[in-house]
Design goal:
Two copies of one chain form a homodimer. Chain A is 38% helix and 20% strand. The first copy, chain A, contains 14 helices and 23 strands. In chain A, α5 links the parallel β7 and β8. The relative contact order of chain A is 0.13. The mean pLDDT of chain A is 96. Chains A and B meet through α1, β5, β6, α8 and α14 of A and α1, β5, β6, α8 and α14 of B. β20 of chain A pairs parallel with β21 of chain B.
Chain lengths: 528, 528
């Protein structure tokens, strides 16, 4: 399938009349063909108007139709074949195996949301029967959740498939019954066009209203802001920088009708190494840490950028082993020149912090966008005195803080900002300290994990990829896993609505076989 | 129990050093004794610090302890006895029977949340078992929801018990495991002190950390803003004016760490009278409408302030019957001098709108804060040309819009802002039109009700007292009913956490007997 440099506006492929932009090969630092025309205000208007028109018919579709559509999107993405992986490789510098894995993750995610739709738990169907004899009589009350309305999704640079055009935000919004307008990320426009066309084909094959999906190219500060400001848009999904997320939050809050922005922004994903775990883990623990730190050139939201441990001979051995493991890590190509520049700037700033010691680096070979991994060590006073050490440096760089005792470590835990993850390495002898740590870190993070590393975010029902500010803009939600659908829903109560007008989910005969809360008691449905 | 003019800061009763304010009797327009000292910045600091300290131990309490505490609050409120009703009557002008009903509603609400806590559905307990054989292996993932942290609740003027110190916001936040700091409404300080002391006694009787509950007096613009700005505070519940709600939203969004504000603000609660219903309903329908319009002197969030109907002889008869019913309604005392002034101003503004015709009024006898009910009629062009006609005039005043045909009525429905409720009166012959109306109005309102009136909000599992902006600041939520607890929760995922450290809700042996989503399938627990 040829890449034409076109946007998707409903059923149409449209070349944007705005400034032309190009994909960029970070390995060669060369532009890629073709050019992509960016959206004008008219394109934004048209995509949003189509999305608005599509909302009622799309959400009225039977659940089975919505689920089949999500599965069709997955099929159409697979049907693109090797061209998708090849183009994504060129645009991102990510290796083939990683991109193939990411494609499978994207497809699995769409299929999970098809199941979520069919199961129908997301609607929180609830019925309180009428009590006509009570004084005063209680009316018949039935609750279900419906979609918020059209959603704008911003593609992320670091997962060109799984957090982009048909990634988790799009899949969960479509599952909720919300049309989606994607603002494609300029770092992988060709990959975006291929996936955008796949979604467009699925819309057509399923006979859905065309406005269910559109995809525009453009700058976040212009097209992105126009989309978030548009009155038809009712929610925003974003994964990216704190600066970018906060700009969208401000715009959304300043609208005549404010709307929710789900921005996943920045996290240093602290790792607590408790004493017995350091002693028992030895070089294996160090290797696991370094592998996680350098995975995907450190370009994961859940990259472990901060390590807390107690000073001592065992920790010195861990640092030495980590230094050795890191020294063997080659410099990997980063996603974009901008990300590479920011990483270089971040590491340079660390080098000027008094008391922060560079203890290990990766190798330096590689092309112009290759990043050299780095590990720093400091004491508690240096850490507590330098709030910037808790700011994310996006890439394979970490700070290890040596504490003199557990109380000092707990105090630093209390001092943490919101995080996507907190990791605890603990063995038998650490459990008392771990029990003290747990209530603190569960206040700080969306996911608390033991004896592993935070990279690798399972697409599952129990996953939380979220967390308190500034990890995200809304700690009440997750952007990965089945619960991601909750972000795009709102409850509606139907009071004494005649049976013939009730939504299927709430009818007495329960034609969808849903599990429902009936008069305060959960009743499991048999499914359809 | 004497009313001393004191605030509650944890276990202490404190007289605020700020400007003294007095309760006000709207029937006599006289100040009530004693004076109440308003909070200083130090009081705010102390209450918030105590709430922060109390959060971990309070949320660690077994569910049964949290439920018993909510029931104890209910008991302590009942134990105040007639003094509470007498004081509330003096401060609000509301009749005894209404206040006794409201007290029962408050108590019922606390008991409902005790049940919600015991049932444990609110935690959304979810388990995805480890799949060690899979490549890559899936870790053990477990999700539960925990409280957001300390919550500030603003007492509302119009429900001095059910939406005030121990009302729905406080009950649902406490149920979620969040300490509460109440900013008492200055319109009923004595009532607030009595209820605040009741909660304080319950905290003590249950042996809870004192910071679980505090209550301050003060102005919204000073003490209210200080509370919402305080870093210990993680969410805000508010019921009141749009202006007040928006001010809190702005402050919360501008914090270094933005926090959610659940502001229930303004709604005109449109009532659609479909043709067959108007014909069949006759004078009974008119009486029902007028009763709802004037209930509680129109001082309900769900007061029906806007009526849409098709022009014709049947509608003329309905208007005539409404005019007659309204003419028999006495002028009731409004809650405060400020509310009365605003109502007078709103009605005066209506009298100057070209094309808006005053067709009926209530009687004028009554004291200085008594409000004369009013009904206006206009055509579609007048309505569509005057956006102010959709702004809430808080009190017993409504606008009826006559449409020439159903298409025009549907267009006006599409034009509505967000609302707490939309009501549809429909008989057999109206069902086709109702079916067209339903998808529109469910996008506009939190509750859609048929063949009744919107006043009267049942405290139940399926209730939604919420809706799109500007009815509330967050359409994803409700402030009445069991789901109100969801506002104060966030999910946490526990990955490979050792069994001995897992929260009870997520242990393999399910000691709480919770219903849980196990590997994607809902499993109903037997309860404890």
């Amino acid at each position: 399938m040829a890449i034409l440099g076109e946007m998707i506006i409903g059923a149409h492929s449209v070349r944007g009349a705005g400034t032309e932009v190009f994909g960029f090969n970070p390995a060669t630092r060369e532009d890629l063909q073709p050019g992509f025309g960016q959206a004008t205000g008219d394109d934004v208007e048209r995509a949003c108007a189509l999305a608005s028109e599509a909302f009622d018919p799309y959400r009225a579709l039977p659940l089975e139709g919505r689920a089949a559509f999500l599965e069709m999107v997955a099929e159409e993405i697979l049907a693109i074949g090797p061209e998708l992986i090849e183009r994504a490789q060129l645009e991102t510098g990510l290796p083939q195996a990683r991109l193939e894995g990411e494609r499978m993750r994207t497809v699995t995610q769409l299929r999970l949301f098809a199941k979520v739709v069919r199961d129908g738990y997301f609607m929180d169907a609830t019925i309180d029967s009428a009590l006509p004899e009570r004084a005063p009589p209680r009316p018949d009350l039935r609750l279900r959740k419906i979609g918020l309305g059209p959603v704008v999704v911003f593609g992320a640079s670091n997962f060109p498939l799984a957090f982009s055009v048909a990634g988790g935000d799009t899949a969960s919004a479509l599952a909720a019954g919300c049309p989606v307008v994607v603002k494609a990320h300029s770092a992988h426009p060709g990959t975006s066009e291929l996936v955008g066309r796949a979604v467009q084909r699925a819309v057509k094959a399923c006979g859905l209203p065309e406005g269910v999906f559109s995809m525009l190219f453009g700058d976040g500060r212009t097209v992105g802001q126009q989309l978030v400001s548009h009155p038809a848009i009712k929610a925003v999904g974003f994964t990216g920088s704190r600066q970018g997320g906060l700009a969208l939050l401000r715009t959304a809050a300043a609208r005549p009708e404010p709307i929710p922005v789900y921005a996943e922004m920045s996290s240093v994903n602290p790792v607590f190494l408790l004493p017995a775990a350091v002693q028992a883990g030895g070089a294996t623990l160090a290797q696991g840490f370094v592998d996680s730190l350098t995975l995907g050139v450190g370009q994961f939201c859940t990259n472990p950028g901060l390590v807390f441990a107690l000073a001592g001979a065992e920790l010195d051995a861990f640092v030495a082993a980590s230094a050795q493991a890191l020294g063997a890590k080659g410099a990997g190509t980063m996603l974009t020149a901008g990300i590479h520049d920011a990483y270089t700037k971040g590491v340079t700033a660390f080098n000027t912090v008094d008391g922060l010691q560079l203890v290990a680096q990766g190798t330096t070979e590689g092309n112009g966008c290759a990043a050299q991994a780095a590990l720093y060590v400091c004491d508690a006073a240096t850490y507590m005195g330098n709030p910037a050490l808790e700011d994310e440096v996006f890439g394979p760089c970490a700070v290890l803080v040596r504490f003199t005792d557990a109380a000092q470590m707990l105090q630093a835990a209390e001092h943490l900002h919101g995080q996507l993850t907190v990791t605890v390495h603990a063995r038998e002898g650490d459990l008392d300290l771990a029990a003290k740590l747990l209530p603190i870190v569960e206040r700080k993070a969306g996911r608390v994990l033991f004896n592993g590393f935070p990279t690798g975010v399972e697409v599952a029902h129990a996953m939380v990829h979220g967390g308190p500010f500034p990890a995200t803009s809304d700690s009440r939600t997750t952007s990965v896993g089945a619960s991601a659908i909750d972000r795009f829903l709102r409850p509606v109560c139907y009071q004494n609505v005649p049976g013939s007008l009730l939504p299927e989910a709430l009818r007495d005969d329960n034609p969808l076989g849903l599990s429902r809360l009936q008069d305060g008691t959960l009743q499991v449905g048999g499914g359809k």
